Amino acid sequence: MTGLTIQPVETAADRERFIDLPYRLYANDPNFVPPLRSEALALISGIKGNPWFEHGRSQMWLAWRGSEIVGRISAQVDTLVLKHVGPTTGHWGLFECIDDVDVANLLLETAEDWLRGEGMTVAQGPFSISIWDEPGLLVEGFDTPPTVMMGHHLPYYVRHIEARGYAGIKDLHTWGLRIDRPFPEIVQRIVAASERNTKLKTRKVDKARFAEEAALILDILNDAWSTNWGFVPLTPAEVAFVGKKLKPIVFEDLIRIAEYEGVAVGFLIALPDINELTRDLGGRLFPFGWAKLLWRLRAPKVRRIRVPLMGIRKSLQGHRVASLMAFQMIEYIRRDAIVHYGATEGEIGWILDDNGPMRSIADAIESKVTRTYRVFERAL
Fold this sequence. Notes:
15 strands; 13-stranded mixed beta sheet; Aminopeptidase; 2 domains; two-stranded antiparallel ribbon
């Protein structure tokens, strides 16, 4: 480790250096989509920029070789993770480095030492910085650019993480499909049956009541996902924060709420792949990027539509009506994605590797796994 040093991120200049590193490391990666720098900075800027810090604490570091930054990492402890996942489970993430085992070891060792000092006995990662941001390390699917709000990593990271003694504990998949053609006949019959069920209604989200609708979706989400691996509930402050961030790319015909006997019991959120609209901005909205993006968002045309979230209340999971409403929401959004956004491809995910019901839906609409993200764990 000759010439290697590691320093905590403490100043605004340090944070700028922290977010700068990926732009250099991925400069020659044809599938890298530069994240918007303002969003990358907000993620790590404390409670003023990210309400996760209301229930979590973290430390970040930069690794140096002489005067050159060669790696970065974060470690974090989330009180909600301690309550819902494991009482001594800590996380690390935002991991980036040159292809050097000594650098990777120094970064991971430093994060682990911090977690031990916080009383943790298990280290899981990467989480950048929570399961609701960018969980897992890309291990399959390096040949295509990620869709909106999905991570992208360098192929050698998995080698260095496993060399440190980490083992994969959970895989998260994205599933891709063509949407510019009808779904299989059996799915069409399910949709037709759903439309004959007078107790079931699917409506578009009302953007004029955005805060109210977001709170409704949060309530369904926290119920529907409560038994999933790694689940921690989103707080109202986080929902408001995400809602504000996503509002410019929320379109009413791409978010559906399913009602059964007049009660909202399910939802599906789809987003146009904004990465297609921001990729040429180099991560910067100023001085001219913001104007380009605003113009493109007036009537966005994209190749891909991503479904990041879908949920149906636990009381209906496993019932036939859940299948009816799920396929109805998917089909209605598929139609509008083609007509209004020019989309030809869809992506669902991420989906946990053991989520049988969602995998069955993905199979039924003839989608295939396109990318795999892995969460690793090591005892401290």
